[in-house]
Design goal:
38% helix; mainly alpha; two-stranded antiparallel ribbon
């Protein structure tokens, strides 16, 4: 007697005995989200403890502040100097500089006397401008965004959603602070030396190098 065929539901990996696709795992999307900070801001709520402002955005602000310091003299600042002053990993910095250049915030020049500099005075570039370039909209939900509005994936009725109006108020409050603070304003607020958590001698790498105090 011939053995009865085994149905797909009883096979260990579906039909033909193949393993399921990687993206079929319930945690695959979460792993991808955690690996890319920009994707994390768009694919769902952050895990507990995750910052809403990505490390890349903070690196971009440090880089922009370093260029703002030299804006008055129009000096070209090399990437190595930006990385050292801002304590920015070079792999992040190169990508950040490309994004800022593509959005016409900075301009770049090759050669031994080249580097990077702002295309506009620091007073005309807001903190929100930099964050939007790197992290995207300031809103906590896509339906509250003023620049990239779209309904949430699980939205029932975007016109009557009470949460949407609350998120718009939160977005407007954040925008009021970040859009209202320019790079020039931020430079004036920055202390000459960041406070130390514990007293002690300066590290050798700190000698003669001013660290930009954006944690």
């Amino acid at each position: 007697m011939k053995p009865s065929p085994v149905s797909a539901s009883t096979q260990p990996w579906g039909d033909r005995g193949r393993r399921p696709r990687l993206d079929a795992r319930p945690d695959a999307r979460e792993e991808t989200r955690q690996a890319d900070p920009r994707l994390a801001a768009r694919t769902g709520p952050c895990a507990k403890g995750d910052p809403l402002l990505s490390s890349k955005a903070k690196y971009a602000l440090r880089a922009a502040l370093r260029l703002a310091e030299e804006a008055g003299g129009g000096r070209w600042v090399q990437a190595s100097e930006i990385a050292e002053t801002g304590v920015i990993p070079r792999k992040f910095l190169e990508a950040i500089l490309v994004e800022l250049r593509d959005h016409h915030v900075i301009e770049s020049r090759r050669g031994p006397h080249g580097g990077h500099r702002l295309t506009r005075p620091p007073a005309e570039i807001s903190v929100a401008d930099i964050i939007r370039i790197v992290d995207g909209p300031l809103a906590l939900t896509p339906c509250a965004s003023r620049t990239q509005f779209r309904a949430c994936a699980d939205c029932v009725d975007v016109r009557s959603c009470a949460l949407r109006f609350l998120m718009q108020e939160a977005r407007d409050a954040v925008s009021g602070v970040l859009d209202g603070c320019s790079l020039a304003d931020l430079l004036q607020q920055a202390p000459a030396e960041p406070p130390r958590s514990e007293p002690g001698p300066a590290r050798p790498s700190d000698s003669g190098v001013r660290r930009l105090p954006i944690a």
